[in-house]
């Protein structure tokens, strides 16, 4: 479900008039999930019906640098620094709740000059996967659960993060999982968040306190993948802005604090028949269908090769550690939170699988695209899953890549994912992540100074 279904440009203009909007934030999610774009006056936005930004804006690292001397990247992105044409998706138009003047924000799709979608743009990659489902007469349904940390302001990156001070005047120092009182410590912030989300139509559901100090989770109502990816993209911006208003930070880093659990984006996923609306994961007698098992088989077969997309940074792999509330392998099980792929207890129509491997730091468009791609391959290739795990999967061997270089090697070598997600996307994405890892390797960590400076 999109933010506003079936909205045309005419509908959007009427809506902007009704809200008396004076300027529009024209947004495009880049490969890191950062919002790029321009802010336009209302008149210019309506007159031009689009804008241009350099193609290379989508090919930057999280630090703003560009790969050089990478053959795949050079083939994919023009050396002449040509423009992309960005066109607004009217279904995503919504207000900017924290703006002083009436301001709207709208997500744009990226096009080449000849009218083709830019194939390595995150929304384009997800659209590509969704078309494969549509061609089979299937409609995937997803429901993300997004974990994040609230922290005290940290203006010196050399200092560790600390839990924020709540209304009691004290910061958390102990585990407060599912504590209502711990959430109430930050009532003014969450009241603003719910008001903002309501104004934006983000359809957030449950808010809970997670295991870590200052760690929370927000759940989204299930729906159509592109619309849900848009909502997660908007929510990340919204939460950061609301936190700043209350003199704290909100972070979606996978592992922001040593000694605390990491943050995930668990994604519940099912598939329905487009013509009947029935869940294809269930047979007529109510049992799990062969397609359900094949979907899990696809997740098991391809998710290790997709790890660089769902765990996109060096920091991401600090989360994938045994006995830290994160999966270390590709096992699956019924209502088992230690496995990579959990099957919740459910009815016939809502039978689903939860991918617990994805980090909160993943680009939501790419994360949904790749987990759906893995399941799709499992169904079309009729891949069978391993036997179900009934005990703790933490006691089993590690089956996921343990670092970004290993993950990138697997991604580049997986031809089936390359064919589904797109050659140019894989080339651009892998080149960017290679450069980010190279940049990380130039930094000396506190651990190295503490343990190596005087001892080796």
Topology summary:
Blueprint: H1 9-19, E1 23-29, E2 35-41, H2 42-48, E3 51-54, H3 71-76, E4 83-88, E5 94-95, E6 103-111, H4 122-135, E7 138-152, H5 180-184, H6 187-200, E8 204-209, E9 215-220, H7 225-245, E10 248-251, E11 265-273, H8 290-302, H9 307-310, E12 332-334, E13 341-343, E14 353-355, H10 364-380, H11 404-412, H12 415-421, H13 423-440, H14 446-452
Helix pairs in contact: 4-10, 6-7, 7-10, 8-10, 10-12, 11-13
Please characterize this protein's 3D structure:
The protein is of the alpha+beta class. 34% of the residues lie in helices and 18% in strands. The protein has 14 helices and 14 strands. The chain has helices spanning 9-19, 42-48, 71-76, 122-135, 180-184, 187-200, 225-245, 290-302, 307-310, 364-380, 404-412, 415-421, 423-440, 446-452, and strands spanning 23-29, 35-41, 51-54, 83-88, 94-95, 103-111, 138-152, 204-209, 215-220, 248-251, 265-273, 332-334, 341-343, 353-355. Strands 7, 8, 9, 10, 11, 12, 13 and 14 form an eight-stranded mixed β-sheet that branches. Strands 1, 2, 3, 4, 5 and 6 form a six-stranded mixed β-sheet that branches. A hairpin with a 7-residue loop joins strand 5 (94-95) and strand 6. The radius of gyration is 22 Å and the shape is globular. The termini are far apart. Pfam families: Gln-synt_C.
């Amino acid at each position: 479900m999109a933010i506003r279904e079936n909205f045309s440009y005419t509908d959007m203009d009427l809506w902007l008039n009704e809200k008396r909007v004076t300027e529009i934030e024209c947004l495009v999610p880049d490969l890191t999930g950062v919002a790029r774009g321009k802010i336009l006056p209302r008149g210019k936005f309506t007159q031009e019906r689009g804008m241009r930004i350099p193609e290379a804006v989508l090919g930057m690292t999280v630090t703003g640098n560009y790969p050089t001397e990478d053959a795949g990247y050079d083939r994919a992105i023009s050396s002449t620094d040509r423009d992309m044409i960005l066109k607004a998706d009217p279904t995503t138009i919504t207000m900017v709740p924290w703006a002083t003047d009436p301001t709207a924000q709208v997500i744009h799709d990226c096009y080449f000059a000849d009218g083709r979608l830019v194939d390595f743009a995150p929304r384009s990659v997800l659209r590509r996967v969704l078309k494969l489902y549509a061609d089979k007469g299937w409609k995937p349904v997803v429901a993300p659960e997004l974990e994040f940390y609230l922290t005290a302001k940290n203006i010196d990156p050399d200092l560790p993060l600390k839990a924020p001070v709540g209304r009691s005047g004290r910061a958390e120092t102990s585990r407060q999982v599912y504590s209502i009182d711990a959430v109430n410590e930050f009532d003014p912030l969450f009241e603003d968040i719910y008001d903002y989300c309501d104004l934006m139509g983000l359809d957030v559901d449950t808010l809970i306190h997670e295991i870590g100090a200052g760690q929370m989770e927000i759940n989204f109502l299930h729906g159509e993948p592109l619309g849900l990816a848009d909502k997660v993209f908007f929510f990340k911006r919204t939460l950061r802005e609301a936190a700043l208003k209350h003199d704290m930070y909100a972070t979606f880093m996978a592992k922001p604090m040593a000694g605390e659990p990491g943050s995930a984006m668990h994604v519940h996923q099912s598939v329905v028949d487009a013509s009947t609306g029935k869940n294809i994961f269930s047979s007529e007698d109510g049992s799990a269908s062969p397609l359900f098992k094949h979907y899990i088989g696809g997740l098991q077969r391809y998710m290790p090769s997709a790890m660089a997309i769902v765990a996109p940074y060096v920091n991401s792999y600090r989360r994938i550690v045994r006995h830290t509330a994160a999966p270390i392998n590709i096992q699956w099980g019924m209502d088992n939170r230690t496995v990579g792929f959990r099957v919740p207890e459910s009815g016939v129509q809502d039978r689903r699988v939860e991918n617990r491997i994805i980090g909160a730091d993943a680009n939501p468009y790419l994360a949904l695209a790749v987990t759906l791609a893995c399941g799709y391959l499992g169904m079309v290739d009729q891949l069978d899953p391993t036997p179900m795990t009934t005990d703790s999967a933490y006691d089993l061997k590690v089956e996921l890549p343990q670092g970004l270089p290993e993950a990138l090697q697997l991604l580049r070598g997986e031809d089936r994912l390359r064919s589904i997600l797109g050659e140019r996307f894989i080339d651009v994405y892998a080149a960017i992540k290679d450069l980010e890892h190279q940049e990380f390797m130039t930094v000396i960590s506190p651990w190295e100074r503490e343990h190596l400076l005087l001892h080796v």
